[in-house]
Specification:
Number of strands: 5
CATH topology of the largest domain: OB fold (Dihydrolipoamide Acetyltransferase, E2P)
Largest sheet: 5 strands, mixed, barrel
Distance between the termini: 82 Å
Structural class: alpha+beta
Helix content: 25-40%
Radius of gyration: 30 Å
Number of helices: 2
Number of domains: 2
CATH architecture of the largest domain: Beta Barrel
Shape: rod-shaped
Oligomer: single chain
CATH class of the largest domain: Mainly Beta
Length: about 130
């Protein structure tokens, strides 16, 4: 009787192995496919944002190049100002809804954003959306 028991347990092992492979292989492929699709979407978003070059004049979008420093004038509702690359003249007063300006303080960069209006001494007030490092 022992040979029949061994044969039955080998059949069970073979059955469970085949069942495991039959279930786990498609699940693994679906999981891998979802990761690949998500990575492709993220890559597409990054590539499309890097390809943006043009200026939308209708929405007052601007690209300005200069050095970011902290604005210490409390009468102007801007956290920073942008100086020309030689740090001699104010180009615009700038602010952002994130910390991108704080991280870029003291660096020569290109800021991309929308003109929100004019401030003291007829300078533009720019809400910065993106920054390109030099």
């Amino acid at each position: 009787m022992e040979p029949a028991t061994e044969d039955l347990s080998l059949k069970k092992i073979a059955f469970y192995t085949i069942a495991f492979v039959a279930v786990s292989l498609p699940v693994g492929l679906i999981f891998a496919r979802s990761i690949a699709v998500n990575n492709k979407l993220e890559t597409t978003k990054i590539e499309s944002s890097d390809e943006y070059v043009g200026l939308d004049i209708a929405s007052s979008s601007k690209e300005l190049t200069g050095k970011i420093i902290v604005n210490i004038d409390p009468s102007i509702n801007a956290t920073h100002k942008l100086l020309d690359p030689e740090s001699r003249e104010v180009l615009a007063y700038i602010y952002a809804n994130s910390d991108i300006l704080k991280v870029s303080e003291g660096f020569n960069v290109t800021v991309i954003g929308n003109v929100e209006g004019k401030v003291k001494d007829d300078y533009n007030l720019v809400k910065v959306d993106r920054i390109k490092l030099k």
